[in-house]
Amino acid sequence: MVFQSENLANAADFFTENSFFKANSDLAFFKEIEEEIEFFKGFKTASSGVICFSAIGKKNIATSFIASSEDVDFNELSSTVSNRKSFTYEGKEVNEFKWKEKSLYAVWFDQNIMVSNSKLIIENKIRDIANAIPADEAFKSALKTTDSSTPSIYIQTEDFKNLYNKAFAEHTYLLFSNITDWVGFDLKLDTDEIKLSGVGVSQENADKKLDLLKNQERLKHQIATVVSLNAIGFESYAIPDFEMYLEQRKKLGYSYNNTNANFFEAINEVGKIHYTQEDLVVLKSSNAAEAFASLQPIIQSQKNFRDFEIYTVLNAEMLQIYAPLIVLKQANFVTQIGDFFVFAKHVEALENCIINYLNQANLALQVNYKKLENKLSNSSNVLMFALSENWLAHMQTKSHASFKDKVSNLDLKNYHGVGLQINVDEKFTYVNAVMLSTPQNKNSSLVKQANRFKLIENSLIHPEFFTNWRTQQRDVFLQDEQLQLQLLDAEGKLIWNKSLSEVVLSPATEFDIFQNTRLQLAFATEHKIHVIDKNGKDVSPFPIQLKEKITQPLQIFDYDNNGKHRFMICQGNRLKAYNKEGKLVKGFDFKTDNSDISRPPKHIRIGKKDYVLVQESSGKLHVLDRTGKERVSYETDAEFSGNPWFLYDGQFTSTTKDGNVVQITEAGDVQITEKDLLSNHFINASGRLLVTLSENILQINDVEIELDYGLYTSPQLIQNQDKTWVTLTDTQAKKLYVFDEFGNLLNGFPVYANSKASYYSLETNKVKLMVEGEENAILLYEIN
Fold first, then answer.
1. What is the H or E stretch that residue 107 is in?
2. Among 170, 597, 654, 707, which residue has the least CB neighbours within 10 Å?
3. C-alpha angle with apex 23: 20 to 29, nearest 5 degrees?
4. pTM of the model
5. Residue 515 pLDDT > 80, yes or no?
6. Where are the domains of the chain?
7. Neighbours of 257 (CB within 10 A)
8. What per-residue confidence (pLDDT) applies to 265?
9. InterPro entries from the entry (predicted)?
């Protein structure tokens, strides 16, 4: 790879005003490059010079500098270089010296000087010139295509692949592979935009895969309509003339079987969508009805999924006609989404595509994509696009160990995507690439389906997140119909299972029993208190066997955040506390008078005082102290609804049976606020937020939202940094809603769901949601 500029001494400064390079200037990766070229900034160069990056061996990258010898004066550099000496190679004098502990080598060729940190590169160049090996004709042609008034980058695609493989174990998504020999780019950097405009050149008679597109009409690519927001990226090829395409295949020596020609003749766009789990191939038709009719003889109905028919493909290798542009050797299944025919190896991949399409979680609808698309030509032979964040996360898994940190710490700085557009002419390939920074409104959010996987059996409990303290990854905890506890990773792969004899009283509680940041999971079954570690192993002295039946989910209180955990269990009308040694806590004793405890106890702290709230089936509320004694006495004729109690506005808050809000102060004063909620209403609250749901009316503080009629779960509150969101699910319509605290529905919602949501927040201002879907499916959504 070659970088050329009219003034190399100031080349590094060229990048300093761009937001992407500013954001990453402190990263080791960019510092290493800056150090490599810092030496060259000491030259008084005013004429054109180039910096070359070359792959050396399996791990190393060499940096070389070429400029006019008139612009290099070693005497001026005498204070910064040391150990200067010379040796002869193939009759040519080579200067060797040290600069900041780095060994550099310099050699003069006529009017030019070459300096490199690789002795091998210098020796190779001396031999090339001595043996009169001509310069690469394609490179010479590429040099003629660029604008001398702007910095330029030249990429030899084969060498670039070698450079790429220094960082990544696999060269998947290597954009220039087999496209051209050399491509020369003019580089344009604005504050929030990086643009490369160039021409690709190949040796004469060197056939490349894009030659298959010669003489094809350029089109506006529409594949983004079915590209989900959890995709890594896509590539799309315009092939409106299938007959001409077959002729090119024959001419270039590729197979050109015209089986299923009637179907392919109705196709004008061929694309591949890349995902971490399984790629999809998408064919767009200009006449979908005609294309579907011609496909009938080779497909059979497999299943109906959300009103989309999925078919088995009888000729699973039919898409090989598009190789090497697009490769999917096992196109086992297909579904039609509008004008698009989507092929996959497995049914689940098509189901995921359908879900995201119905959720409108697709790339074509995103403002960021539309803005970047407007920076490119309206039509082209090829369009490629990478969703930056997803691509970066995927490439971290493909990075060599020495390069992983450099990738993971990269700050994309609102550069949400990279677009690459290619047009093919008879002799040249025209390439344009754009990265555009489009800052997201701090008050806006975007939801995407991060993953979906299916369970072998239905889960008896609502799946929950469990943090792996070592990796900080959130795994999925559930219990199947055989009473087996299971822990799955975010891809749905089994980590461990554990046999139990009873059903878990969910939810479970994640906590740190030893105060050493190693998290455990605690839960109760009907006769045991369990604590397990991240590997599913019991934490001694648990499990604790109890004779009497446990009737509510386990609660863990740590009053002073000092690790003195209290394991609170309900047994009918009794509330008991155990310590982490598995012993009953002496001095704590509470039982109700008239009915059983109806909900798990709740710990609320106001100032320095602790309150334990216990509800009876009769509706009565007890407000206890740490020892189980009544702490707050109150009098009221109101009948409580049985909904949970919350701390809102400094008071214990819930509702009455006749649909009003009731509040009790620490002093025992009772206040009733009329609300006229219907009998089957719900309530949730935090310090400053009061949420109620009465039939289809959701009220968030003073804001009323009229929902469609349905069967709704109780509203939940999600805390994300300084924001609070309200989420609830219509299990009848299978829709999950998320509102902000002002009653605004978050972008992209509602999404598909068949249950309430489990969630966790990340420091990066993201929230992960987990819900149950159909057919034992688990859906993971991500809100940015």
1. strand 102-109
2. 170
3. 90
4. 0.80
5. yes
6. 1-133, 200-398
7. 12
8. 96
9. WD40/YVTN_repeat-like_dom_sf (IPR015943)
